[in-house]
Design brief:
13 helices, 75% helix
């Protein structure tokens, strides 16, 4: 669930980030025994000439980095394993990890690296499972996060034209419409989501935002309160209450 102060927009294209430098930075300060285990797994990948051995080593590295609170590297190694497996479900899972991370990262080199990693995994998944709308929706999000907003929007519009009940595509189009100040269009997409999923907290939240920005106080309060009832978090409740109190 995004916060009320969700960042929007894209800046100037940042300098590229190399995976090796990310790994090197993450290793700094780790205990000797942990570094030794990481090195063993890395070397087993280099030496292994059996694909299944490599897949297992990548998965072990993913779990190890996850245990060290390094979700980007965990996603990276899950992605490496998925590429070797050539399994669209595994590729989608790894790409989803990156897309979740990119929502939590400010625009910059890391943000772009995350989006590019997701893009690569989704492109491969679509080679294995052409025309899959879920994968194409995720790819559109990765495209947008790389800064190609209009290209991503066109991809999403093509998806909802084929499938008018595609919730993820409508939800993303609604969020993008809010970012660009196209509130009536946002309401149209988000109302579609709520008609299909009445308890979609994210859609309810953004409907509240859209109605708030268009001066429809009653509707805004309604959707904010419905969202609060689903989230049940004191910090979020205070944030929503503040939004409601500052409405004209």
């Amino acid at each position: 669930m995004a916060s009320a102060s969700m960042a929007s927009g894209q800046g100037v294209a940042p300098a590229s980030l190399h995976t090796d430098s990310l790994i090197h930075q993450a290793k700094q300060g780790l205990p000797a025994n942990v570094l030794m285990r990481i090195t063993e797994l890395e070397n087993s990948v280099v030496r292994g000439d059996v694909k299944n051995q490599q897949i297992q080593a990548f998965r072990q590295l993913a779990h190890l980095w996850d245990s060290l609170s390094q979700p980007d590297l965990a996603a990276y190694y899950f992605g490496k394993a998925a590429m070797l497996q050539a399994n669209p479900q595994a590729l989608q899972f790894a790409a989803g990890l990156f897309l979740n991370r990119v929502q939590q990262t400010s625009p910059g080199a890391l943000h772009t690296w995350q989006a590019l990693q997701a893009d690569s995994l989704l492109q491969r998944a679509l080679q294995l499972k052409p025309g899959n709308d879920t994968l194409q929706t995720m790819l559109a999000q990765a495209t947008i996060e790389q800064g190609a907003v209009m290209q991503g929007v066109q991809q999403l519009l093509a998806i909802v034209k084929r499938d008018s009940n595609n919730v993820p595509a409508h939800l993303l189009l609604g969020r993008l419409s809010i970012t660009s100040g196209q509130y009536p269009r946002a309401i149209e997409h988000l109302q579609k989501v709520v008609s299909l999923q009445p308890q979609n907290a994210e859609a309810l939240y953004y409907l509240g935002v859209a109605y708030r920005e268009t001066g429809h106080r009653q509707e805004a309060v309604r959707y904010f309160q419905e969202c609060k009832a689903l989230i049940r978090d004191p910090d979020f409740d205070r944030e929503i209450d503040s939004l409601i109190q500052t409405m004209p």
